[in-house]
Amino acid sequence: MATAAAPHESVDRALRVIELLGTRGGGFTLEELSAETGIPKSTLHRTLGALKLRGFAAQPRTGGPYTLGVRLLSVAFGFYEQLDLRTLVHPLLVRARDAFDETVHMAVLDGAEVVYLDKVECAHPLKLSSVVGGRNPAHATAVGKALLAWTYPNDATLGPWLERHAPLAARTPNTHVEAAGLAAELARVHELGYAVELEESELGVCCVAAPIFLGRATPAAALSVAGPKQRLPERRLHEIGPRLRALVEDAFSVPT
Q1: Alpha-carbon distance 146 to 159, whole Å?
Q2: Is there a contact between 138 and 148 (Cβ–Cβ < 8 Å)?
Q3: What's the pLDDT band for 1 if we cut at 50, 70, 90?
Q4: Largest alpha-carbon pair distance within the chain?
Q5: Sequence spans of domains, the chain
Q6: pLDDT by residue (tens digit) across 2-61?
Q7: Is there a cis peptide before residue 167, judged by omega within 30 degrees of 0?
Q8: Residue 256 pLDDT grade (very low, low, confident, very high; cuts 50, 70, 90)
Q9: DSSP 186-202
Q10: Which residue among 97, 103, 133, 193 has its CA within the 20 to 30 Å range from the CA of 244?
Q11: Domain 7-79 adopts which CATH fold?
Q12: φ, ψ of residue 101 in degrees (nearest 5)
């Protein structure tokens, strides 16, 4: 007599099926799902039946391909609408502060500005002027450039943004305010995977930032490490940048 699969194995099978269905809008036949997952068709049919019952999978026509169900999409979109970014990302801010011994911010993009949703101070006596709920021009900050580089990744998308928000304010003599200069800077950010800011928002302050995607094509937020230029010269920023990016990716990576 065959023994039933352990409950966690059944859950794992269902999750594997959901992940696969999410990769193709047109869906998969039972045979294709079995070939891709290695799950026997009889077992797979039971798994799909359970997912269909809960609305997490659908089969628009009998014998046709399976797709993600409306209930799953409703749950996913509802989660994003109610997502508390501060609660989700705050532990990462603490880890970054401890790793680099500098003040760390988390911000989101709002039009032409970034809004700081969280901040973790370091132990150094010099305090930064940024505050939770405060705003800065996106083009003048590392955290803003990290958001802009993936939200507007090419000339076709960046051009209209620049037109809407021109002229860009020059916070310091180092701020990128010309369209061509900012476009080149954002292309560099995209290539590096992180952004640096060399006294572009506030004289004497330098930053490095990395985007936080949370499974989306555009960043949900970005994380920055900021401090005085004496502690964060350009060389140091480029040392921190890859490590900060790896820290973010490790915190929100999806196991394979």
Answers
A1: 17
A2: yes
A3: very low
A4: 78
A5: 7-79, 83-251
A6: 444 445 788 889 989 998 998 888 899 999 999 999 999 999 999 999 999 888 999 988
A7: yes
A8: very low
A9: HHHHHHHTSEEEESSSS
A10: 133
A11: Arc Repressor Mutant, subunit A (1.10.10)
A12: 55, 40
Length of the chain: 256
d(CA 226, CA 245): 15
Half-sphere exposure (Cβ direction) of 164: Cα atoms closer than 13 Å: 8
Fold of domain 83-251: Beta-Lactamase (3.30.450)
List CB contacts of 119: < 8 A, sequence separation 6 or more: 93, 103, 104, 105, 106, 130, 131, 132
pLDDT at 127 over 70: no
pLDDT in tens, 97-121: 999 999 999 999 999 999 999 999 8
One-letter identity of residue 182: L
- What residues pair up with 104 in beta bridges, in sequence order? 120, 225
Non-local CB neighbours of 104 within 8 Å, separated by 6+ positions: 93, 96, 97, 119, 120, 122, 223, 224, 225, 226
| Cβ(158)–Cβ(152) below 8 Å | yes
pLDDT (0 to 100) of residue 133: 85
The CA-atom distances, in angstroms, between 180 and each of 30, 164, 193, 199, 216 are 51, 16, 20, 20, 27
The beta strands (E) that lie in the chain are given as 57-58, 67-68, 103-110, 113-120, 135-137, 195-198, 205-212, 221-228
